[in-house]
Design goal:
The chain is 47% helix and 13% strand. The two termini are 29 Å apart. It is globular, with a radius of gyration of 17 Å. The protein has 9 helices and 5 strands; from the N terminus they run E-H-E-H-H-H-E-H-H-E-H-H-E-H. Bound molecules: 3'-fluoro-3'-deoxythymidine monophosphate (FDM) and magnesium ion. Magnesium ion binds next to loops.
Length: 211
């Protein structure tokens, strides 16, 4: 009954197309949970700070080309290199609010024509999110939001395929949220969903693994 007394944190993932509003909602949610007295950290993938993350970043800015399968595995390895720390934080009671995860990994790579199940395989065994908040917006509507930043995947035709792939990955931990609602409305929906899952984790919901 000693270790079990630590109330674990929740793994909360935000997913969606580029320009869906994930990054602002991640920081709003992290601040909110912090004001509730919770231990919480904002994470994101790719984590561009590591050596693998730096390679990914130069691939995304088209400074470097890599084979499609190879870059896929690199994105996955960038999550695996964080696995032990992720699990340690969760088990120590810290909630993680994560901007993109394995779903982006699969949805983007499969949009290039790689087999979906092949893309899922290297993610198996990573900590599974307790909640995936999918910020749902069409590729066309996202592109109208002031344009993309010019990275490799920021093209409307490509994002349409990514959108389809995301939708085929939905499971019971997903909550779809209409991302065309106001920022404040979105924030309040997200707060409610996050508080509920944090509470579930505190009440003994077990940490599980992908898929
Ligand atoms: N992306 C992101 C992938 O292709 N695979 C992955 O595993 C992840 C996590 O990288 F276009 C893509 C999605 C996006 C790009 O993401 C960079 P950010 O959130 O814009 O930094
Ligand atoms: Mg981006």
């Amino acid at each position: 009954a000693i270790a079990a007394d630590v109330r674990r944190g929740a793994l909360i993932v935000l997913e969606g197309l580029d320009r869906s509003g994930k990054s602002s909602q991640c920081s709003r949610l992290t601040s909110f949970l912090h004001t509730q007295g919770l231990s919480v950290e904002a994470w994101r993938f790719p984590d561009r700070s590591t050596p693998m993350g730096k390679m990914i970043s130069s691939y995304l800015s088209s400074q470097m080309d890599l084979d499609d399968a190879s870059i896929h595995l690199l994105f996955s390895a960038n999550r695996w290199e964080k696995r032990a720390l992720m699990e340690a934080k969760l088990r120590a009671g810290t909630t993680l609010v994560v901007d993109r995860y394995s779903y982006s990994g699969v949805a983007f790579s499969a949009a290039k024509g790689l087999d979906l199940d092949w893309c899922k395989a290297p993610e198996a065994g990573l900590p599974a999110p307790d909640l995936v908040l999918y910020l749902d917006i069409s590729a066309e509507a996202a592109a109208e939001r002031g344009g993309y930043g010019g990275e490799r995947y920021e093209k409307v035709e490509f994002q349409k395929k990514v959108e389809q792939n995301f939708k085929s990955l939905q499971d019971s931990t997903w909550q779809n949220i209409d991302a065309t609602q106001s920022i404040d409305t979105l924030e309040s929906i997200i707060r409610g969903a996050a508080l509920k899952v944090v509470n579930d984790c505190h009440s003994g919901r077990e940490l599980s693994h992908m898929w």
